[in-house]
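Fold this: Pyruvate kinase
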Amino acid sequence: VSEVQGDDVVCVIKNSATLAGSLFTLHCSQIHIDMPTLSDEDKDVMKKWGAPNKIDFLSLSYTRHAEDVRQAREFLSKLGDLSQTLIFAKIENVEGLNHFDEILEEADGIILSRGNLGIDLPPEKVFLFQKSALHKCNMAGKPAVVTRVVDSMTDNLRPTRAEATDVANAVLDGSDAILLGAETLRGLYPVETISTVGRICAEAEKVFNQDLYFKRTVKYVGEPMTHLESIASSAVRAAIKVKASVIICFTSSGRAARLIAKYRPTMPVLSVVIPRLKTNQLKWSFTGAFEARQSLIVRGLFPMLADPRHPAESTSTTNESVLKVALDHGKASGVIKSHDRVVVCQKVGDSSVVKIIELDD
């Protein structure tokens, strides 16, 4: 930038390039910009569009401090149903990187915006940040999303070999989800992009070193473990030892199922979300649909909503009927076959129980 004239910024172009895309932004590298993370326009959109549509996630662009997340959460809490919306902090610059640990503690998940980070960081540093950030998210049990994986598929039907390897590495590094950008926003092959990335992810998951990951996570959590953490890790260990085809977890908040998924079991985790009835003295409403949808972003977690007449901590008879519904759902989707073993994690009274069942025909 050579000078600023009123609202215009005069720049010197140092190399020739053709700018393509539907949106142009000016990126100020290595400079602290004193602008609010949530602009008035953002708040307006959340009120007028977000609230009526009951959005599940808010991606908070350019998160620089934990305070940004706290302010966004405070704003959401005033918008009725949006108090349940999960906030994903999007890390896009060095300032966000420097405060990564405090942001991770406050946010519900992290999106690593590698495109913008690549401008702020030297290219040789991006991989290091990606690996360490994903590791921290995994250990905290919070979803991590990686962006900018197959840019060349915006105009081409096939990704480059480097991009295909990059997608697989994101999975092996521990990311929960992959977020596509230009490839599906303005790309020529949006559907093919999704199926290609999906196939690469599926291949990478087959060779994920679960054993090493499990030991590392248990070591990181340390002892004494919390009650829930020990139940979750025990359920995963039992499922691996008996070669179970699925882990079924009864939960009302989704927290127990997310903890099980944190240990990255090799089999799917079927999270049976039990809705809870609540009232504000004027009307009754069910909670549970939000939690079920939101757990879709967690790697290996497959949610289903149970019948609200069955509370999560109920007697064994009602639990059996919910379990039957879950098993039928598993059979219908092809995850469970006859004579398979299934690990079930549930609450009975005040105590949590992990049990192994073997199916008949």
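The first strand starts at residue 3 and ends at 5. The chain is about 40% helix and 20% strand.
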